Amino acid sequence: MRIVVIGATGTIGAAVVRLLEKRHEVVRVSRRGPVRADLEDPASIDALFETVHDIDAVVCCAASVALTPLDSDADVIAGLRGKLFGQVHLLRRAVDHVRDGGSVTLTSGVIDRPTPGASFGALANAGLEAFVRAAADEMPRGMRVNAVGPGWVAETLEALGRDAATGTPAADVALAYAEAVEGDAQGRTFRPLRG
């Protein structure tokens, strides 16, 4: 398969690329690489699909929302623009460019314990997962859409100076993306298991 991985240089994206490129051709997409896209810029997503052709699957690992105080307007709009609306736009455009029977895998997330500033991330994640469940019934030409909802990634926690043992290693998170791409699930949110 020819798989486009958006966010290919991030912690999760790099792990997904390492895993998938063992069995597939992977097109690496990032904000600053040779093939570019930014979820907050719909025109860049349109340009991506004008540039890259013969796509069997699209995997989006680029979506994140910063911890944002409840009273912060600008940060909320920016976070929802990329994480939620950016991925909705990505799916809408991918449907016209992914081959029959192909797939699109988006990224939601898990907020399993209350964290100050996480309410808008929870909103984006829940909205995205509901969107994936509903959009699955509308996918044309035998296409599939799924999401992966990773919690904290061990490497991210370590970079933040927190206990990495409470997170899931990126390599284990990548397995969930591979299952979404290579399997036959439709409208599902995969939850990576801890190593």
Automatic annotation (TrEMBL):
Pfam families: adh_short_C2 (PF13561). It comes from the Bacteria. Keywords: Oxidoreductase. Gene3D superfamilies: NAD(P)-binding Rossmann-like Domain. Belongs to the short-chain dehydrogenases/reductases (SDR) family. This is Short chain dehydrogenase. It comes from Actinomadura graeca.
